[in-house]
Amino acid sequence: MAARGGGSANVAVLLAVLLLCTLVAEAAVFNVGDRGGWSFNTNSWPTGKRFKAGDVLVFKYDATAHDVVAVSAAGYKACAKPAKGAKVYKSGADRVTLARGTNYFICSIPGHCQSGMKIAVTAA
């Protein structure tokens, strides 16, 4: 009888691993701004797209001119200087995995956020 229970546990572990692999395989990758990349007037880019937690946003931009900062809703609305400890990306080819809920990103270079270099992406 003990061997039978161990086999059931192995099947359960195998099913859990397969489910996890399926969920990971279904994560989508989105290029922010499509061909234009992370740029001015990108704020409407998420419109009409469906995002899930675990999807990846790829921010492509000129790293000498821009950055990407994950901010709060208030920071997004105000285009405020990022709070101390905010996650700042500066590579020019950043990959960010979406968390469930609304994820906010701005460019922190003065005037860029105000010129539409910001996005709010809601992931189910």
Q: How would you sum up this structure in a few lines?
A:
Helix content is 24%, strand content 25%.
Total helical elements: 2
Globally, the shape reads elongated
The largest beta-sheet arranges its strands as: 4-3-6-7
Determine the CATH superfamily.
Cupredoxins -  blue copper proteins
**What is the rounded Rg?**
19 Å
Total beta strand runs: 7
Mean pLDDT: 88
Oligomer: single chain
- Provide the β-strand percentage band: 25-35%
User: What summary fits the major beta sheet?
Assistant: 4 strands, antiparallel
CATH architecture: Sandwich
Q: Give the SSE order as H and E letters.
A: HEEEHEEEE
Structural class, from secondary structure content?
A: alpha+beta
- The tally of structural domains comes to 1
Unreliable runs, pLDDT <50, ≥5 residues? none
Helical coverage, percent range: 10-25%
Distance between the termini: 43 Å
CATH topology annotation: Immunoglobulin-like
CATH class (first level) name: Mainly Beta
Organism: Triticum urartu (Red wild einkorn)
Signal peptide: 1-27
Keywords: Copper, Disulfide bond, Metal-binding, Signal
Pfam families: Cu_bind_like
Task: Write structural notes for this entry.
- By secondary structure, the chain is α+β, with helices and mostly antiparallel strands.
- The chain has one domain (27-123): Sandwich (Immunoglobulin-like), CATH 2.60.40.420.
- It contains two helices and seven strands.
- It is elongated, with a radius of gyration of 19 Å.
- GO terms for molecular function: electron transfer activity; metal ion binding.
- It holds the Pfam family Cu_bind_like.
- This is Plantacyanin.
- Residues 1-27 form the signal peptide.
- Keywords: Copper, Disulfide bond, Metal-binding, Signal.
